[in-house]
């Protein structure tokens, strides 16, 4: 049975994640209701505006459903704004966050939209050469603390981390047709590839 992977469809680049997942052995689903989230085998919190996504999680009371996935060991992948929401520390901000990832992040640390860039990143545990990564008003992971493993770095700082069933990326693999980070997410689904 293929895993059902939800993309939190409150704001941000939902369609791009769904299109990437459609290339993989899973059932992609845009989710924005409690019951829809709870029925997922994994969840992606996409890039967008972290404060907006956070406010909508609160407004629609979705944290218990997302927490239920986390507590059940189902994988959660945060990209860009998503990794900000997963982190337990945000530099200079008291904004809402889920706070499960033992990392310190800084919002918009690479600059404005015009400072966006692409690069190729070697990723630990991912075969087939470097992963193409797109950084758009991206956060920086200033510190990956105990239990938070660095899978890829750029300019000496973590850009892809894993902590148990959590994945966090400061970049967007889904914008350039890169599927290998999403495959990594699928590999974390309990029993998905047994």
Key descriptive features of the protein:
194 residues, alpha/beta, Rossmann fold, 3-stranded mixed β-sheet, 6 helices, 12 strands, globular
Report on this model:
By secondary structure, the chain is α/β, with parallel strands linked by helices. The chain has a single domain, classed as 3-Layer(aba) Sandwich (Rossmann fold), CATH 3.40.50.880. Helix content is 24%, strand content 31%. The longest helix is centred in the first third of the chain and has 10 residues. The chain is globular, with a radius of gyration of 15 Å. The termini are close together.
SSE order and pairing:
Blueprint: E1 4-8, H1 14-21, E2 27-31, H2 34-38, E3 42-45, H3 50-59, H4 63-71, E4 76-79, H5 81-86, E5 87-90, E6 101-106, E7 117-121, E8 131-135, E9 140-144, E10 149-154, E11 157-163, E12 166-169, H6 180-187
Parallel strand pairs: 1-2, 1-3, 3-4, 4-12, 5-6
Antiparallel strand pairs: 6-9, 7-8, 10-11, 11-12
Number of DSSP helical runs: 6
Number of domains: 1
Structure summary, number of beta strands:
12
- The CATH class designation is Alpha Beta
Task: Based on the coordinates given, report the CATH architecture.
Answer: 3-Layer(aba) Sandwich
Give a quick summary of the entry.
The chain is α/β, with parallel strands linked by helices and 194 residues long. It is 24% helix and 31% strand. It has a single domain (4-187), classed as Rossmann fold (3-Layer(aba) Sandwich).
């Amino acid at each position: 049975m293929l895993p059902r992977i939800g993309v939190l469809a409150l704001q941000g680049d939902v369609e791009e994640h769904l299109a990437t997942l459609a290339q993989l052995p899973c059932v992609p689903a845009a989710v924005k209701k409690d019951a829809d989230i709870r029925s997922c085998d994994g969840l992606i919190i996409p890039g967008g505006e972290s404060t907006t996504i956070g406010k909508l999680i609160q407004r629609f009371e979705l944290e218990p459903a997302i927490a239920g996935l986390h507590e059940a060991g189902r994988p959660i992948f945060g990209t860009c704004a998503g990794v900000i929401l997963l982190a337990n520390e945000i530099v200079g901000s008291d904004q809402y966050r889920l706070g499960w990832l033992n990392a310190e992040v800084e919002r918009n640390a690479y600059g404005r939209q015009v400072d966006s860039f692409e690069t190729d990143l070697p990723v630990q545990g991912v075969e087939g050469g470097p992963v193409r990564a797109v950084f758009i008003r991206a956060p920086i992971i200033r510190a990956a603390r105990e239990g938070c493993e660095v899978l890829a770095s750029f300019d000496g700082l973590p850009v892809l981390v894993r902590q148990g069933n959590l994945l966090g990326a400061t970049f967007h693999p889904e914008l350039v047709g890169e599927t290998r980070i999403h495959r990594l997410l699928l590999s974390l689904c309990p029993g998905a590839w047994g």
